[in-house]
Design a protein that fits this description.
The chain has 296 residues and is of the alpha/beta class. Helices cover 34% and strands 16% of the residues. Residues 9-19 have low confidence and may be disordered.
C-alpha cells in the first residue's frame, strides 16, 4: 500500500500549485481500484474509530500508525467542527469520555482542544493530543487510506477544502448517511470517493439515481445484519460493500477466532468494519485461500 500511494503522490507533486483548487479526477488510482468490485480481489478491513486498543485511544494519530502494523487497512475516523471552524477527529461532541477535558468540541476552539490529551477506551490517560484533520491528511500521504465519518454540523464547505489543500483526493473516502448528503457532496466535489449507507434494494436505486460515478462509491450495508439482496445488486454495478461487525460478531472473534467472519464474507461482504482488527485482518487475508495456503 505504501508503495502505490507513494507513486501516486510523486505524480501529484508535478503540479506546482499550492492553492486548494480541484484536481482533475484521474480515470484510475490505487484507491479507486480498491473500491471497484472484483470477485477475485482480496477482502479488506476498516478499522472502526481508527482501531483503538489499550494504550491507543480512538481517533488518535498514534493509533492510526499502530493499526497499520496489522496490514493494509482502511482507517475510519470521525470528523467534528470546532467553535472557530477547525476540524478535528473526535467521535463524541462531548469531551469527557475520550479526553481529560470537559465540555463540547463544538463549543471549544482549536487552541483549547490542543491543550487536552486523549484517554483510551478503558479511561487511562495518555500523552496523545486530539489530532486535527489537516495533520492527519498530511500524515496519510503515501501511507494510508482514510474513511472520514462526517459528524453533525460538518458541511461540504468544511471537508472539501481540507481534502483539496492536502491533495488527498487519492486517499480519502467520505462517509455519508443519506442520499441527500450524497447529493450535496456531489455538487461540491463529484470527483471524491464516498461511502453511502445502502441497506435495501430501494436504497441502491436511490444512490445510483444521484448520478454518482459508481467507481467512486462503496456502500455500507448495515451492522449486525444485512439484506442479502443488497450485495448482489451493488456488485452488478461494480460497487463493493462494507459491513459493520462491531458488537456481537467482533466479541465472538475475540474468543472463537477469525473464522466467525467467514459467513458474512461468503455472503458478499468485501470490507469488514471492525473493532477487532487483528482477527478481521486474518479473516480477510485468508478468505478464499486453501487451508494449506492460509497457514503460511
Amino acid at each position: 500500500l505504501a508503495a502505490v500511494l507513494a507513486a501516486a503522490f510523486l505524480t501529484a507533486c508535478d503540479d506546482p500549485r499550492t492553492d486548494p483548487v480541484p484536481v482533475p479526477a484521474p480515470a484510475d488510482t490505487p484507491l479507486l481500484a480498491e473500491l471497484r468490485f472484483d470477485p477475485d480481489a482480496p477482502r479488506r478491513v476498516s478499522a472502526h474509530r481508527g482501531g483503538p486498543e489499550p494504550g491507543y485511544p480512538e481517533n488518535c494519530l498514534a493509533t492510526f500508525e499502530h493499526v497499520l502494523t496489522y496490514g493494509d487497512v482502511f482507517i475510519e475516523c470521525d470528523v467534528r467542527r470546532t467553535a472557530d471552524g477547525g476540524l478535528v477527529f473526535m467521535h463524541d461532541d462531548e469531551l469527557d469520555r475520550t479526553t481529560d477535558g470537559h465540555g463540547r468540541v463544538s463549543t471549544s476552539t482549536m487552541a483549547e482542544l490542543a491543550k487536552l490529551r486523549l484517554r483510551d477506551d478503558e479511561g487511562a490517560a495518555t500523552s496523545y493530543p486530539i489530532p486535527t484533520v489537516d495533520e492527519v491528511l498530511e500524515w496519510s500521504r503515501g501511507k494510508a487510506w482514510l474513511m472520514l465519518d462526517i459528524k453533525e454540523g460538518v458541511s461540504p464547505s468544511d471537508v472539501v477544502p481540507a481534502v483539496r489543500r492536502a491533495r488527498a483526493e487519492d486517499r480519502v473516502v467520505v462517509i455519508l448517511y443519506t442520499v441527500g448528503d450524497l447529493k450535496r457532496y456531489l455538487e461540491a466535489a463529484p470527483d471524491l470517493a464516498y461511502s453511502v449507507s445502502t441497506r435495501s434494494p430501494k436504497d441502491v436505486q436511490a444512490v445510483l439515481a444521484t448520478g454518482a460515478d459508481p467507481r467512486r462509491l462503496i456502500a455500507f450495508i448495515g451492522a449486525g445484519k444485512f439484506d442479502k439482496r443488497v450485495p448482489v445488486l451493488l456488485h452488478e454495478h461494480g460497487i463493493r460493500t462494507i459491513f459493520g461487525t462491531f458488537g456481537q460478531l467482533d466479541q465472538r472473534a475475540e474468543t472463537e477466532g477469525a473464522g466467525v467472519y467467514d459467513e458474512v464474507l461468503e455472503a458478499g461482504i468485501d470490507v469488514l468494519a471492525t473493532d477487532s482488527v487483528p482477527p478481521a485482518v486474518e479473516a480477510a487475508r485468508n478468505f478464499g485461500r486453501t487451508p494449506a495456503a492460509a497457514g503460511h
